[in-house]
Amino acid sequence: MTVAASEPTTIRKRQVFAWSLWDWGAAAYNAVIVSFVFSPYVVRGVVGDEKPGGLSGNTWLGISSATAGLLIALIAPVTGQRSDASGHRKRNLAIWTGLTVAVMLGLFSVRNEPAYLWIALVLLAAGAVFNEFAGVSYNAMLQQVSTPATIGRISGFGWSMGYFGGIFLLLTCYVGFIAPEVGWFGATADGGLKYRMVAVFSAAWFALFALPVLIAVPEKPPGPKQRRVGFFASYKVLARDIRELWRVERNALTFLIASALYRDGLTGVFTFGAILAVTVYGMAQDTVLIFGVVANVVAAVGAITLGRIEDFVGPKRIIMISLVGLVTTALILLFAHGVTMFWIFGLILCLWVGPAQASSRSFLARMAPVGREGQMFGLYAMTGRAASFLAPGLFALFSGLFSDRAGIIGIALVLIAGGVVLWFVKPPPAHQPKLA
């Protein structure tokens, strides 16, 4: 193992901003399609009280997500390795982003009738896969727009742009399509048109803000010829690389395990937060969207602030501080009552989510061997999906055995487990290793 001979010592603000705009645009899929608008429309508007195949809309959506997760776990590391080897990282980002946008446009065909559920499930599963693959290439570009001294603040800035982009787009869609009786372009509730128009508008949003990174950030040169192999041969290369990482960079694999655990806990915070707000703390249904907007603002502020501090203290300390803050706040919420207490401690909880996510990305970028960034972020996606059942499973276990409120214990346990494993991970070096 040798250290890279030379690394960039300066950054171009134009490239950083162009790179971060992809995060801003990607909120169109993550916040609008998955979290707050289209997936709820599929469950409530398309399926309603029907039970196709004897299963509820929520169950079918879970099956769709699980299928997508399995495909991501099987393929993401190979797509990352191939983009590193071929020198087509930016081209792959364009392809996967374009396919995600195409899926979002296809969602316009999903009318509010149960027969359209199957189209919705296939499109949402495909969108999840394409968007995750795009994220692998995008995250791998973090090293191209940063230096070892600025990687933390740039990762935090990009993550905060994603939060702010989601906030702005959610409010725009609410004012333009959801709230009015007749929204922009004549969108009404008939046939679920207002929600279908949100999907089209969001697709255009993502496409527009994905363009700058493709223009401003140069392509990486291809890797060694021996790594440029066919698709199935890439799995042999992947297996060899994992053995090599276990031998010379075991620390990186330990981090992947730790991050898979606590990132699943972070996902659980957002997944079940809105449910608990309504069912346990008495928040009105129409207030949840407002809470979601404010929560994203708080998470973005946390990512920006602690991202700057990270460049001085390192990503591990930021993640550990965030995990302690998350677990402590979650346990306070376990005994809290009422809407006001949820507003206070729910937002404090979100304050720690942004830094934990942003510093995890920069942690891996600092640790990834030069020329293997895409592959490492592919493994990052794979391990995250491999552990994605833990927080939902433990939440269901504790809420089923005791009460909905007790489900918080399940999420806290996953966060604690991730923190314990992370404790044994050495902080990443200032310079990335370079493997053959």
Keywords:
two-stranded antiparallel ribbon; 2 strands; 436 residues; mainly alpha; Growth Hormone, Chain: A; 2 domains; 15 helices
List the helices and strands and how they pair.
Layout: E1 2-3, H1 13-36, H2 38-47, H3 57-86, H4 89-106, H5 117-140, H6 151-178, H7 193-216, H8 233-248, H9 250-279, H10 285-313, H11 315-335, H12 339-367, H13 373-386, H14 390-401, H15 407-423, E2 433-434
Antiparallel strand pairs: 1-2
Domain Major facilitator superfamily (MFS) profile: 252-436
Membrane topology: Multi-pass membrane protein
Main location: membrane
How would you describe the overall organization of this protein?
- This protein is mainly α and about 425 residues long.
- It has 15 helices and two strands.
- The chain has helices spanning about 15-35, 40-45, 55-85, 90-105, 115-140, 150-180, 195-215, 235-250, 250-280, 285-315, 315-335, 340-365, 375-385, 390-400, 405-425, and strands at about 1-5, 435.
- It has a two-stranded antiparallel sheet.
- Helix 1 (about 15-35) packs antiparallel against helix 5 and helix 6 (about 150-180) packs antiparallel against helix 7 (about 195-215).
